[in-house]
Every structure is written in C-alpha cells, then in structure tokens.
Specification:
The longest helix has 15 residues. This protein has 8 helices and 16 strands. The chain is globular and about 55 Å long. By secondary structure, the protein is an alpha/beta fold.
C-alpha cells in the first residue's frame, strides 16, 4: 500500500505534517548536523523582530517536572540579519520555511512582514503572545479585539499566508480562535507556552530572573490537546497543534483532535532527532492501522 503523508495549509503543501516549533530550533543549523532537515514538513524559525532584541536577563531557563520554563524574551538579531544569514541556509533543504514574527506594536509586526514579502518564505507565523506596548503591556493574544485587529492589519501587508499563534493564557480559547478567523487568518497554531513560575527554595529566589516564564514540554500536552480540539471545532481554519509532542503517537493524538499539522518544540532540546522521529512515527502508525492517507486522521476522534 502507498501511504500518503502530504497535508495542505492554506494552499501550502507540506510533504508530511511535522514541523518544529519556533524558539526550539533556531534556524536549524545545529540540528542539520544530526539529520537532513528536508525530512521535515516545515521549519518554523525563532521569532524575528524589526530590530535586534537583547532578550531578558539571565537565568532564563529552568527545568520542571516533565517540562521546562523559559523566559528568553524573544532574543533575536532582527529581520535584516535573518534575511541575509538564515534564509539562504534553510533554503538548502527541501522543506517549507515558516517565519515567526514578533513585535511590540502593530507597526513593528507590519515592518517585518513587509520586509519578508519578497523573500522565499512560505508562511508567516504571528506571535501574538508579545506585549502590546500601546495597550499597557497586555499580550495581543489575550484580548480578542486586539487579536482581530492585529490579524487584519498584518493580512493587509502580507504576501504569504498568515498563521496566528494563539496563547493558552486565556479563559476561552475558542473566542480567540474565532477572533483570528474574523481578522482573516489563514491558519491558527496553538498552544504557545503557559505562564508559570518556579522558586529555588535553597536560594529563596526565582528560578528565572523574569520571575515568570513559559512552561512547555510533556506536562502541558493534555491541555494542548484539549485546546486544539476546541479550536478546531470552533473555526473552519486549518490548525497546527503543539505542546508536549515527543513522538509519532503524541502527534497522532493532535491529528485526531483536529490538527492538520503538528509542531515539535521542547523535545528538540532533549532529543535532537525528535522532529525526524515524529514524522517516522506517524508513518509507522499509518502502516500499523492501514491508514492510506494521513488526512484521514484529521479530526477523526470518535464522539
């Protein structure tokens, strides 16, 4: 039997539904030493801003039970360096390129999107967990009105399909998914990290200098699956599911919940082969259960 693994995200075809999550893979240089990045459906690069960002003070990472907290602060060299240095490297591989875009105002986001408009980039993932400096610092992704507005404005200046990356730090994820859809998003991705805290009881201080950080890893997977299921049933957009995926079985769970594609994040730190092995694991599952086309799995959980 021939097994078909291709999926479609807003007209962009991926050879398989596995990508890597922004902030966990850099631009792929280190991981390219372990395997051919062309085995992935897509690479989502670390957040890119309109100017260099220094990030937060250290320490910025802390290990937790079944996960990790990070407060990197979206450190990046800016879009100009990214265009010159990173795009040519990634384009050596037969995979899709998705750029994660961050900013502190709508103008910031649009400047990056416009600079990328004529670049060989397949899709743009808009990180709405950034603080909206014009609205007192609340993240764009925590206010449905702000989310709809930024989605609409980014769409006006974007040449590539837009993925809105949703924050789980909200009361009702379906409200945010619908706001992104109303603003004209082509795809949504979720979940981003959960706001968390760890205290070092021996030093009696915070484990990360920022006091709070984003929790990722296996600990958040049940929450992520639930939110992906809710969002996929609330909108008609394709969904990229992420949050605690370590292998093919985890990925299939997200597909059954309604995700069209999945993203491997924190697992890359403990296992540099996690993305490759997840893609292989999905195919193994398809062979085991005689699933001819991976699209048959999307949203196929029995009610």
């Amino acid at each position: 039997m021939e097994y078909k693994t291709r999926v479609n995200l807003a007209g962009v075809e991926l050879k398989n539904p596995v990508m890597v999550a922004s902030g966990t893979f850099g631009s792929g240089k280190e991981y390219s030493e372990f395997y051919d990045l062309g085995l992935l459906g897509a690479i989502t690069v670390k957040g890119v801003a309109n100017a260099p960002w220094a990030g937060n003070a250290t320490p910025r990472i802390a290990e937790t039970h079944s996960g990790m907290i990070n407060a990197i602060g979206l450190q990046n060299p800016g879009v100009d360096v990214f265009i010159e240095r990173d795009i040519p490297f990634i384009r050596q591989f037969d995979t899709r390129l998705i750029v994660n875009v961050c900013g502190k105002s709508i103008t910031d986001y649009c400047e990056v999107v416009e600079k990328l408009s004529d670049q060989p980039v397949d899709m743009l993932e808009i990180n709405v967990s950034c603080p909206n400096v014009k609205e007192g610092g609340i993240a764009f992704g925590q206010d449905p009105s702000a989310l709809e507005t930024i989605t609409r404005e980014v769409k006006k200046c974007a040449k590539q399909p837009i993925i809105m990356k949703l924050s789980p730090n909200v009361t009702d994820i379906t409200v945010m998914a619908k706001a992104a859809e109303a603003g004209g998003a082509d795809v949504i991705s979720l979940i981003n990290t959960l706001t968390s805290m760890k205290i070092d009881i021996h030093k009696r201080t915070f484990a990360v200098a920022n006091k709070t950080g984003g929790l990722s890893g296996p600990a958040i997977k049940p929450i992520a699956v639930r939110m992906v299921y809710q969002a996929a049933h609330a909108v008609s957009l394709p969904v990229i599911g992420m949050g605690g995926i370590r292998n093919g079985e985890d990925a299939v769970e997200f597909l059954l919940a309604g995700a069209t594609a999945v993203s491997v994040g924190a697992a890359n730190f403990s296992n540099p082969f996690a993305g490759k092995e997840t893609a292989e694991g999905i195919l193994d599952y398809m062979k085991k259960y005689q699933v001819a086309d991976v699209n048959e799995l999307i949203g196929a959980v029995k009610e």
